[in-house]
Write a structure and sequence with these properties.
The chain is an alpha/beta fold. The chain is 32% helix and 22% strand. It contains ten helices and 14 strands. The longest helix has 14 residues.
């Protein structure tokens, strides 16, 4: 693991939002001072790996001073971007961002789509999704958007039926048909791969699957389709920072042919460039 700062999932306790809004007080001007390095909050895999590729191979030539901070939760990168502790973040999808802004009163906006991490269903107990037994327990992410994505994935593969129009806001309460009487264990997204020995199957976000040495393209029982998928991972900033020249440089580098090749060579279909 690279020697970059890490914030663990402990911040998801009751004080998570407060921590995010007060952390790194000495770095309050990180976003406002465009003469300094651009500090970007990112999930370790693949986001920080992609950013570190940019930092090590492309940034200097482009005149970009880039600093990468790793976070292992889905809350602090946005709160840190909102309060200016970091200048940008790269870890989330547009539906998740929209939901986060609505619930937390934050003002984070998308700059550019970079990649897709297909959500997948994994199991240590069965080799095929239709082999799940009646009453099987499936772990799913507990945040609004990823829970909805997980249920949509199961519905798309015939394991259940959802109410029409619920989209990524779906919850288990929106299930209209459940022929296998599946039960659901709602966990923080980072915990889902760790639950595989305790449940019959788990729906895991692509980045957490890769961290857990799962290969989505090979190991998933079912996997989200890339075509017309709204869940691309994006570079985001606080509203008003979109024209920061450092952000513009990073957006260009993240959608460069070099980064596309890095993604293709490194992740072999488990991460897909969206540009």
């Amino acid at each position: 693991m690279r020697n970059t700062a890490k914030i663990t999932t402990a911040v998801l306790a009751a004080g998570a939002l407060t921590f995010g809004l007060s952390a790194c007080g000495s770095d309050k001007d990180a976003a406002a001072d465009t003469s300094g390095p651009l500090v970007v909050a990112a999930s370790p895999v693949p986001h920080a790996e992609i950013l570190n590729f940019v930092k090590d191979n492309l940034a200097e030539k482009a005149g970009l001073d880039l600093e990468v901070k790793e976070f292992t939760d889905y809350v602090t990168p946005n709160t840190a971007t909102e309060d200016g502790s970091v200048g940008a973040n790269y870890f989330q999808t547009q539906p998740y961002l929209d939901d986060f802004n609505k619930k937390n009163g934050t003002h984070i906006v998308s700059v550019v789509d970079v990649h897709l991490e297909p959500l997948g269903l994994y199991s240590h107990k069965v080799k095929k999704a239709d082999a799940l037994k009646s009453g099987a327990t499936i772990a799913i992410p507990n945040d609004t958007v990823n829970e909805g994505r997980a249920l949509q994935l199961l519905a798309a593969n015939g394991l259940l039926t959802l109410k029409d129009g619920v989209g990524t806001s779906a919850t288990p309460a929106d299930i209209t048909e459940n022929p296998k009487n599946l039960k659901f264990k709602e966990l923080e997204a980072a915990q889902t791969p760790r639950s595989l020995d305790d449940v019959d199957a788990a729906v895991v976000n692509g980045n957490y699957a890769i961290e857990a040495d799962l290969k989505p393209a090979e190991d998933a029982l079912v996997l989200e389709k890339a075509k017309d998928n709204p869940n691309n991972n994006l570079l985001a900033v606080k509203e008003g920072q979109e024209n920061d020249p450092r952000v513009k440089k990073l957006a260009k580098l993240l959608t460069s042919p070099e980064v596309k090749k890095f993604i293709e060579d490194t992740y072999a279909g488990s991460v897909l460039a969206s540009f």
